[in-house]
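Q: Got a minute? One more chain.
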Amino acid sequence: MDLGPDRRRRRPLTVGSVHAPLIVGIGGTTKPGSTTERALAAALDAAAAAGARVQLFDGAFLARLPHYDPTAARTADELALIAAARAADGFLIASPAYHGGVSGLVKNAIDLLEELKADPRPYFDGCAVGCIATAYGPQGGGPVLAGLRAIVHAMRGWPTPCGAAVQAAPGLFAPGGACTDPKTAEQLAMVGRQTAAFSLARRAAA
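A: Always. Here it is, folded:
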């Protein structure tokens, strides 16, 4: 999935057949092409390869969202994320470790999904949610991954059996976006595949 500057100026990217289940990816940082963003893109690529349609809301998009205020009028960007979440069959969420927790940028986007509380399918209800945490230290990703899973549970979603805790390092992702570490690449791919598989089965059952 291309994370180059030309793509980043466009609306959130959607890839795949309109008849396939939709996996919405939310995550990144304010730094273009961050490890978090590339990890999320890798998982979305695996979900797409498994038969899902994918839509990415990256760090640049999330940075445009105002601080969530339940009483405020919604902006066009907020409405775009809400509409995608309503249409989604599954989610992939990626956050960097900021002081042992989920970043404010990502949490603000999740908080916006409070707008789904009165929907026939509220929040993440019935959806698979793949969780990805990135950190520079070997231990930093664990608490963030646990925090994301707790958030998903609170919002009635199903965290995938496999979550990814990625240790950031120079050269972990090639300039084209490919992960250079086989173990990390497989971990991210498994999160994407499991999210897609659950979503495909859910749509087939429905």
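A: The mean pLDDT is 91.
Q: Perfect, thanks.
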